[in-house]
Design a protein that fits this description.
By secondary structure, this protein is α/β, with parallel strands linked by helices. It folds into two domains: 4-177, Vaccinia Virus protein VP39 (Rossmann fold); 186-259, Helicase, Ruva Protein, domain 3 (Orthogonal Bundle), CATH 1.10.8. Helices cover 38% and strands 18% of the residues. The strands form two sheets. The chain has a seven-stranded mixed β-sheet with strand order 4-3-2-5-6-9-7, with helices on both faces. Helix 3 links the parallel strand 3 and strand 4 (76-79). It is elongated, with a radius of gyration of 21 Å.
Length: 261
């Protein structure tokens, strides 16, 4: 039985499962990661399409059922541990129905590793992933994900497709690795994005003033930034990159002045 205290809502609708596999468009030589394999409803369908399925599942009750699947599908490898403890991330694809409460951390890892993925999310989270400015759902997670990936909202999934049914609708999203990402310092970029989106309803000027100490800005520095009168949630990736360039130039100028004193 699913244990809701672990966030377990197993997808049981066979049509949705088959559609999820179809959307993944797997190749016979693919090595596929499945996070939160549960009792194996999706696992056994993936095993028909790819060379190897690595099923990650920490719950020993579920693992017992997954081991029974191995008798029929020899290309299933079971890892009885939490996803965050997995060090090997060399996969051709990820197809998963993940625990909703781990959506942000799992998505961040998949995005940074640029693993093509088909994920079943809580609908509200999926809407944030694909949101564009000036949508109110556009947020830090939108920027972080879209920097690495192109998220495509495939379809909404009813709670009735799960056992037990969650209290929310879900959504199937495909994440395509973004090619030719800009050559920018990622650490600084995400630091600036995090600072700005802590005030996403404010203008860039107000957000920078609020984060002045955190970003090591002097009072006059803020006048150098473009898009000062735009609201933060109106900034697309290009605008955010322009802001970061100015911020880095200001920091480099300060560093140079400090060394020449």
């Amino acid at each position: 039985m699913p244990r809701t205290r672990y966030g377990q809502h197993f997808l049981v609708d066979p049509d949705i499962i088959k559609e999820e596999v179809k959307v993944a468009d797997l190749q016979p030589t693919d090595r596929v990661l499945e996070i939160g394999a549960g009792t194996g409803a999706l696992t056994q369908e993936l095993a028909k399409e790819a060379q190897e399925i690595i099923a990650v599942e920490p719950d020993h009750h579920c693992v017992h059922q997954l081991r029974q699947l191995q008798n029929k599908h020899k290309n299933i490898t079971i890892k009885q541990e939490r996803f965050e403890n997995i060090s090997d991330l060399d996969y051709d694809a990820c197809v998963s129905n993940i625990p909703f409460y781990l959506s942000a951390s799992i998505t961040a890892t998949l995005a940074q590793e640029q693993i093509p993925s088909v994920i079943l999310y809580q609908k509200s989270f999926a809407e944030r992933l694909v949101a564009e400015p000036p949508d109110t759902a556009y947020s830090r997670i939108s920027v972080m994900t879209q920097y690495y990936m192109i998220p495509v909202y495939h379809r909404t999934v009813s709670p009735s497709a799960f056992s037990p049914p969650p209290q929310v609708h879900c959504a199937l999203v495909k994440l395509y690795p973004r090619k030719n990402r800009p050559a920018i310092p990622e650490t600084q970029f995400f630091q600036l994005v995090t600072a700005l989106f802590s005030h996403n309803k404010n203008t860039v000027r107000k957000a920078l003033k609020s984060e002045q100490k955190q970003l090591h800005l002097n009072k006059g520095d803020i006048d150098h930034f473009p898009y000062a009168n735009r609201r933060v949630r109106e900034l697309d990736l290009h605008a955010l990159q322009e802001l970061m360039k100015v911020w880095i130039e200001l920091q480099e100028r300060k560093s140079f002045n400090d060394t020449t004193r």
